[in-house]
Design brief:
Chain B: GO terms for molecular function: ATP binding; serine-tRNA ligase activity. The structure holds 2 protein chains of 2 kinds. Chain A is built from 9 helices and 17 strands. By secondary structure, chain A is of the alpha+beta class. By secondary structure, chain B is of the alpha+beta class. The chains are: A alpha+beta, B alpha+beta.
């Protein structure tokens, strides 16, 4: 239409242009709707799975390693609830009045145990090259979703804040994952290794049954979490590193535990591979999960928009500009360094003595003012 | 450049964890055990003063500067939901002391309506009297009906009984409505005030004590935000993306500083005979109200959980106050002294202006709080003890600060008396509140229903039963032992060195693996 035209020709073109424009608008609307629907459906597709992961449900999970063995007690043992009651370490009743079930106060030595576990764990992981963090515990719900959780689902694990688009975190994985949202990292920045101490809040909707007594399943707890961002080709090896760190930590505390390679039906959408640690809880009479280490490959990073620019291969021409190497998505991993309530269950139940006292694992003593044992008040 | 922690001479990887100072044997957890609470049938509600005068949300965390003083009563009576719990208010006492109560209300800039309260109370008494009279008559009729009667007499009595019943029903409904209205109005009445408290607004607060003096710097100083940036200690930008403004990540040595401050403070207070606690941070909103806060007010400081009747705590004072809710404690259990470490969440709605930069005003922070329940005659002296402990803690950390006796308009409804501590923050160029110690006398306990049974005087006859001594309300007190972000501001700004490093106060070093200074990464 830019050139010289006869009026009738011009008119024809104008009509044609108008039709094209309308046609386009309709199509673009359709495209938008379709894209949204595609996103919605496609986001349901879980991450791919590591070839070594056993296929099946929970019973198909395999044991990678066992450390230690159940301690043989020469006297009748108690569970952590009874021990806690006798040693005046928790109060579930007052918490039920003030907040509801599955809430608790820690008291006396249990407070120091929580502080010791947190501090010792953070220090140990710092020594292994991780950057310590504390994080917001109120976050935008979009960040929760991008990490692979569902804040609005039925039976959601996530608490929402009234009158806002915010939620409480169920794990520090979420706010740490969010740090580098929508960023392009330099190759030299990777790997980024964080250790975050936070409180975690979970509705535990849908969780019922016997495994909910006492500290085993609660709405609020402290946790020390490890989080790694790395190049894709390195994630398998960082997964190994994370589970090794966990193994070292739990061994130092003298726990008996097994490391499981979780089967496909038990993975959860973001995880490419997941190792769970289950520790022996004599009072419970079985193994209980104390930790989980997941390799989420690029599942979270594609949602959080975390990319990096791989470095140039040595053979490239010096003239190549920075923008020529396409960015790639990082891989993310997360692993529990210490989930405090379950660790307290383990320590109380495994280290109980016949006289009702609890021996404190050696590594924690310097963090408890040198305290070696929790003794009943009458002594 | 590889990111990581570099702790001066002691690198991360060779962190030698110094043994923490051992607690003295006397404090080795031979703490006052929390013996099972003596539960007895609830004594009939005797009306004792409780004002839910939640006019100004008590500023436990450092209050906003005067420009953003919290407005008094922001909810109209109509909007206030009917109280779902009753406060044990002593209306008779209010009536008998109405001049003092009126003066107090005026001094505190409260808009409680005393006249209305007294009016409603008088009316209520009248109706109660009438109700009792009618009940009496109804009993007479009922008794008469037991005997032999002529049918016509019986019929008359039946009618009379019916009328009385209806009349009673109406009166009892009125009484209920009146009682609710009376509660609503009376709960607005603030606590009475200690006679030594200066009358007036913030400027009338007096200085009880000054400790230290502002350090003279021989070089241009930086504020905590700049120091934090240069030393890679915080991230506000990432937190703004993930959560919003006034949120933050602590990083590297700041994390260890938070852990050290928390642990050291808890240990120090344990040594002084307090029982350590961690608490729920999600609580029922009724508990929040009973402590004197307003979860549902406009400009509320309180976050609520969607789809529930729960809120996030703004201070551990709330869940600790709730522990002994609706209980009768034995005299021997008192005093109960708790030190609670928790996270705190505050909307900071209505807080604006310059004093909101960085860590000074945030939505989420860690705090160590002291809470005491005691006999009424002891609360003044425990108030002194709490402020003394605070003074010792802050002096140990080498801070320069002043202790203020807060004036009436700045008290907040629950506090009978409040001491604030303001520390010198050189980067801010002024004093900033780091702590608050309040004596709430029986304001909270009358709402939370925390009573105790005084012991029998020695002269009483041994035959006297346990139930003869009437219960009384305990007094409660609360005081900030350590509000972590403001403490971090103080330490960074006061201990900064010319080379950009920060010296760590000596008491905290054993809790930081012996670290003596936070140094810039290039060194």
């Amino acid at each position: 239409m830019k050139g010289k035209l006869e009026p009738s020709e011009r008119q024809k073109l104008i009509e044609e242009g108008k039709n094209l424009k309308e046609g386009l608008l309709t199509l673009e609307e359709d495209l938008l709707k379709l894209t949204d629907e595609l996103q919605q459906e496609a986001q349901c597709i879980p991450n791919m799975t590591h070839p070594d992961v056993p296929i099946g449900d929970e019973d198909s999970s395999t044991i990678r390693k066992k450390v230690g063995s159940p301690h043989d007690f020469s006297f009748p043992i108690k569970d952590h609830l009874q021990l806690g009651k006798e040693l005046n370490l928790f109060d579930f009743d007052a918490a039920a009045k003030v907040s509801g079930s599955k809430f608790y106060y820690l008291k006396n030595e249990a407070v120091m145990l929580e502080m010791a576990l947190t501090n010792w764990t953070v220090f140990e992981v710092i020594k292994r090259g991780f950057t310590p963090l504390t994080t917001p515990e109120i976050v935008r719900s979009s960040v929760v979703e991008k990490c692979g959780f569902q804040p609005r689902g039925e039976n959601t694990q996530v608490y929402s804040i009234e009158g806002s688009d915010h939620c409480l975190i169920g794990t520090a994985e979420i706010p740490v994952g969010g740090i580098h949202m929508d960023s392009i990292l330099a190759n030299s920045q990777l790997p980024l290794k964080y250790v975050a101490s936070s409180h975690c809040f979970r509705t535990e909707a849908g969780a019922a049954g016997t495994a909910t007594r006492g500290l085993y399943r609660v709405h609020q707890f402290s946790k020390v979490e490890m989080f790694v961002l790395c190049q894709p080709e390195e994630s398998d090896s960082y997964h190994e590193e994370l589970i090794r760190i966990e193994e070292e930590l739990f061994t130092s505390l003298g726990l008996h535990f097994k490391i499981l390679d979780m089967a496909t039906a038990d993975l959860g959408a973001p995880a490419y591979r997941k190792f769970d640690v289950e520790a022996w809880m004599p009072g419970l009479g079985r193994y209980g999960e104390i930790s989980s280490a997941s390799n989420c490959t690029d599942y979270q990073s594609r949602r959080l928009g975390i990319r990096y620019r791989p470095s140039e291969p040595p053979s490239s021409t010096p003239k190549k500009g920075k923008g020529n190497i396409p960015t790639q998505f990082v891989h993310t991993l997360n692993a529990t360094a210490c989930a405090i309530p379950r660790m307290i269950v383990c320590i109380l139940e495994n280290y109980q003595q016949e006289d009702g006292s609890i021996v404190i694992p050696k590594p924690l003593r310097p963090f408890m003012g040198g305290l070696e044992r929790i003794t009943p008040k009458s002594q | 450049m590889r990111r990581g922690c570099c702790f001066g001479g002691t690198t991360l990887h060779t962190l030698k964890l110094a043994t923490l100072p051992s607690l003295s044997p006397s404090s080795r957890f031979v703490l006052n055990p929390i013996t099972p609470v003596f539960r007895s049938p609830r004594a009939p509600l005797r009306f004792s003063p409780i004002g839910r005068a939640l006019s100004s949300a008590p500023a436990v965390q450092p209050a906003a500067p005067s420009s953003s003083k919290v407005a008094t009563k922001t909810i109209s009576d109509d909007q206030l939901a009917k109280p779902q719990w009753n406060a044990s208010i002593d209306f008779k006492w209010i009536r008998d002391n109405k001049d003092a109560v009126a003066t107090n209300i005026k001094n505190r800039n409260s808009n409680a309506d005393l006249e209305l309260v007294l009016e409603l109370y008088t009316k209520m008494l009248e109706i109660q009297k009438e109700v009792e009279r009618l009940r009496g008559e109804r009993n007479v009729v009922a008794n008469k009906m037991k005997g032999k009667l002529e049918p016509s007499e019986r019929q008359k009595l039946i009618e009379e009984g019916k009328n009385l019943k209806e009349g009673l029903l109406t009166l009892e409904e009125d009484l209920l409505k009146l009682t609710d209205e009376l509660q609503q109005e009376a709960q607005c009445i603030p606590n009475m005030t200690h006679p030594d408290v200066p009358i007036g607004d913030e400027d009338s607060s007096t200085i009880r004590k000054k400790v230290g003096s502002p350090h003279d710097f021989s070089f241009p100083i930086k504020d905590h935000l700049q120091l934090g940036k240069e030393l890679n200690l915080f991230d506000f930008d990432a937190a703004a993306k993930v959560s919003g403004s006034k949120f933050y990540y602590l990083k590297n040595e700041a994390v260890m500083l938070e852990m050290a401050l928390t642990n050291w403070t808890v240990f120090e207070v344990i040594k002084r005979g307090f029982t350590p606690l961690t608490t729920p941070e999600i609580v029922r909103s009724s508990v929040v109200e009973k402590c004197g806060f307003q979860p549902r007010g406009e400009n509320t400081q309180v976050y609520s959980i969607e789809g529930s009747d729960h809120c996030l705590i703004g201070t551990a004072e709330i869940p600790v106050g709730g522990i002994h809710m609706d209980s009768i404690l034995a005299n021997s259990q008192l005093p109960l002294k708790y030190v609670a470490s928790s996270h705190c969440f505050r909307t900071e709605a209505g807080a604006a202006g310059t004093a909101t930069r960085g860590l000074y005003r945030v939505h989420q922070f860690s705090k160590v709080e002291m809470f005491v329940l005691c006999q009424p005659e002891e609360s003044d002296s425990y108030h002194e003890e709490l402020i003394r402990i605070e003074e010792e803690l802050f002096t140990s950390l080498g801070l320069h600060f002043k202790i203020l006796d807060m004036a009436t308009a700045d008290l907040g409804a629950p506090a009978y008396r409040k001491f604030d501590v303001e520390a010198w923050m050189p980067g801010l160029g002024r004093y900033g509140e780091i702590s608050s110690a309040s004596n709430c006398t029986d304001y909270q306990s009358r709402r939370l229903g925390i009573r105790y049974r005084p012991s029998e005087p020695p002269s009483s006859t041994p035959k006297k039963g346990k139930g003869n001594i009437p219960t009384q309300f305990v007094h409660t007190l609360n005081a900030t032992a350590c509000a972590i972000p403001r403490m971090i501001v103080c330490i960074l700004e006061n201990y900064q060195q010319e080379d950009g490093s920060i010296v760590i106060p000596k008491p905290l070093r054993p809790f930081m693996g012996g670290l003596e200074r936070i140094t810039p990464k290039s060194q």
